[in-house]
């Protein structure tokens, strides 16, 4: 349920849309200790190394034979390592190196994500991001486990949903990219993470929509974004969310992460 609070990107969204698009009902305990059963309409309307290593992960819901023609062009780039595995859905996270047992989820690490919603991949921008990442880890080896995520999920079912029918505002974005400094939990390193993260976020945005609005995915937000960047620029969106906040959490009990405050 957690990812659904910010929309809920996922590998099957091309078939089924976002997590929030599939919620039928939800039990909600309010800050006032009241309990509510919300049916679908209520929810839908209101709501390392010393050198960088490029890893491409292609996930396909089907057989190996069906997938091979789709990723074959990438093998012509002569990657250093190429593997092909078939796993059940429950094993996909681990197969892609993002399972709870993998180093990326190890205890004692701090993560900061600086996400941006994009329309297209910009090759010149990606080269600039590569250089920013290289500089960060060469000057600060504590950041050698950092990553730059390019998430390109299928969007058919996501865009089939009326943007005005849910609180998720950025259905027009085709790609989700995030510059993610990862480092030993140490507050003295936070400023370095912020410096590189904000710079990379600006480069991504400038290469996609110069002068346009910055869209960010609230589940990954780094906490310095504006409410509009997270929840949408149409005034009615925040007005609805703030009205709900005032009604169901007037004392701000649920303000831990990216709250919608008056």
From TrEMBL:
<keyword id="KW-0560">Oxidoreductase</keyword>
<keyword id="KW-0285">Flavoprotein</keyword>
<dbReference type="InterPro" id="IPR012951">
    <property type="entry name" value="BBE"/>
</dbReference>
<feature type="domain" description="Berberine/berberine-like">
    <location>
        <begin position="216"/>
        <end position="258"/>
    </location>
</feature>
<dbReference type="Pfam" id="PF08031">
    <property type="entry name" value="BBE"/>
</dbReference>
<dbReference type="InterPro" id="IPR016164">
    <property type="entry name" value="FAD-linked_Oxase-like_C"/>
</dbReference>
<keyword id="KW-0274">FAD</keyword>
<protein>
    <recommendedName>
        <fullName>Berberine/berberine-like domain-containing protein</fullName>
    </recommendedName>
</protein>
<dbReference type="InterPro" id="IPR050416">
    <property type="entry name" value="FAD-linked_Oxidoreductase"/>
</dbReference>
<dbReference type="InterPro" id="IPR016169">
    <property type="entry name" value="FAD-bd_PCMH_sub2"/>
</dbReference>
<dbReference type="GO" id="GO:0050660">
    <property type="term" value="F:flavin adenine dinucleotide binding"/>
</dbReference>
<dbReference type="GO" id="GO:0016491">
    <property type="term" value="F:oxidoreductase activity"/>
</dbReference>
């Amino acid at each position: 349920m957690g990812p659904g609070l910010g929309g809920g990107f996922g590998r099957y969204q091309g078939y089924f849309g976002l997590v929030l698009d599939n919620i039928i009902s939800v039990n909600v305990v309010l800050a006032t200790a009241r309990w509510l059963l919300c049916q679908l309409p209520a929810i839908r309307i209101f709501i390392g190394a010393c050198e960088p290593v490029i890893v491409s992960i292609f996930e396909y819901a089907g057989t190996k034979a069906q997938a091979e023609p789709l990723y074959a062009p990438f093998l012509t780039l002569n990657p250093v390592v190429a593997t092909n595995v078939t796993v059940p859905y429950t094993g996909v996270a681990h197969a892609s190196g993002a399972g709870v047992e993998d180093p990326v989820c190890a205890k004692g690490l701090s993560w900061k994500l600086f996400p941006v919603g994009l329309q297209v991949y910009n090759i010149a921008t990606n080269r600039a991001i590569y250089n920013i990442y290289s500089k960060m880890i060469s000057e600060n080896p504590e950041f050698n486990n950092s990553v730059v995520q390019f998430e390109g999920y299928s969007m058919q079912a996501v865009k089939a949903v009326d943007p005005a029918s849910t609180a998720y505002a950025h259905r027009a974005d085709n790609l989700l990219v995030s510059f993610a400094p990862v480092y030993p939990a140490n507050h003295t390193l936070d400023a370095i993470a912020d410096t590189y993260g904000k710079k990379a976020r600006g480069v991504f945005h400038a290469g996609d929509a110069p002068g346009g609005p910055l869209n960010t995915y609230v589940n990954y937000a780094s906490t310095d974004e504006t409410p509009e960047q997270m929840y949408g620029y149409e005034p009615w969106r925040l007005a609805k969310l703030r009205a709900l906040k005032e009604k169901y959490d007037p004392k701000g009990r649920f303000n831990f992460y990216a709250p919608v405050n008056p």
